[in-house]
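Researcher: For the record, we're logging two predictions in this thread. I'll number them. Prediction 1 follows.
Model: Prediction 1, sequence and structure:
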Amino acid sequence: MQNRIAKAFERAKNEGRGAFVAYLTMGYPTLARSEEGADALVAGGADVLELGVPFSDPFADGPVIRSAAYKALENGVTLDDVIAAAKRLRAKHPQTGLVLFAYYNLIFSKGLEAFAAKAAEAGVDAVLAVDLPLEEREELLSVLRPHGIGFVPLVAPNTPIERVKASAEGVGDGFVYVITVKGTTGARTELPADLTARLDEIRAAVKLPVAAGFGISTREQAAVVSRHADGFISGSALVKKLGEMKGEIKTLALADR
């Protein structure tokens, strides 16, 4: 049986578009405001929400998300708070895919079984553990599987294709997160020239949907990526935009250019 993430990618495919995967740092600028932002992203067309759990050493993230994480930590936001927010979002958006995006130390410290049980009860569809390598992920996957929770593997620009294939095996319903650029997260004015060929190669090699992220900040970039992948991921541009917005938020989406 497909979970909501698989159905979201299939729905987007049937509509002739790439799935929109949107990241927010939960707790920035406040927890309530980030939940408003999540609602606004769904209104703006997001198919899958990545709910970022703030961490004190977000080494994979650029200045926008790093700053947002520090602010969320100052606000006292914890993993449990984000799981509780996921439960509220699930009640409001029953068809939206929910990915819990965290560093593994936070998950491990909570206790794997306790984490998986709470995440499942909240309606989380998949987990993305940024710093959990292929060789060490089975201890988490073995706990997620019985709860029906998938895992989203990260693939770097220089990951050999055989390792990409291995990363996409045994993770349940979800998608392969293809990192578009070397370095940390953050909006870019241009994406790498060889990205489309890389996406074509990965898409041909794996069974899971392929979504590309890091640096996507405009609809134009999203459209280019979507011609060679099943979806696109945007984070920093949306986090920055949410932080700048005042008053009621009705919709939140990528800028036209």
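Researcher: Logged. Prediction 2.
Model: Prediction 2, sequence and structure:
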Amino acid sequence: MLTPRTDHLIDLALEEDAGLGDVTSRAIFPPRHRSRAIIDAKQDLVICGLDVAALVFTRVDPAIKVSPLARDGDRVKKGAAVLRLEGPTAALLTAERTALNFLQRLSGVATQARRYADAVAGTGVRIVDTRKTTPGWRALEKYAVRTGGCCNHRSSLGEHVLIKDNHIAAAGSLTKAVRLCRAAAPHLAKIEVEAKTTAEVKEACRAGADVILLDNMTPAQVRAAVKLIAGRATVEVSGGVKFETLRDYAVPGVDVISIGALTHSAIAADLSLDLQPARKK
């Protein structure tokens, strides 16, 4: 995930937090003052974003030595150390908050994803994310979703066709929207259609949709729709699915359940940096 876009996000975050310098740390610690630090987990979690956090520290000062003590995707117990650091004390403290912000957010998403993946284990249903991501953070948050054991839906509007209710309303009919997209899309592109009612499910099947998204249906309605589709299209369920009802929707015939909460409702994981004076030079 260490792409130019990630570099840009780190630069923006550091400019936001330390663009005017760290007046407190620079006042207390001379340039040669060095310390060691450990980042550890304050809760059980799935760790994610270690490389990003490491890059924050070295971006502030290349003299900081970073040693990972875990790998992204590891299930980490409360109290376990995940990153060891050593370098100029002022630089460590200047980078601390920005590095933790990345690490806590991405670990929160990964931890959330792991809960959802574990909840449907053995059903054959895949849990995928949505585009309900933090602006600018989509690639990182979708990486965190994968790290936690779930999968990604499309990352942008240009990846595949997804005909939603507003497309249908503006086009005049579901069938017309499918026909227009089929004519314009690349020959390998799949056509996905959102359906809210039994009538729309039937129309999507007749129109030749490759994927039918059952939107905001009850588990009973999903089971009925699966029977109507009868294997003619991939079945995705979305809308109204909560963690507590997840297994109710993971019924035979459902291939994918998309969950916006993987990203938009993930709580930042609790990690902290503990600093110990090391030595002066």
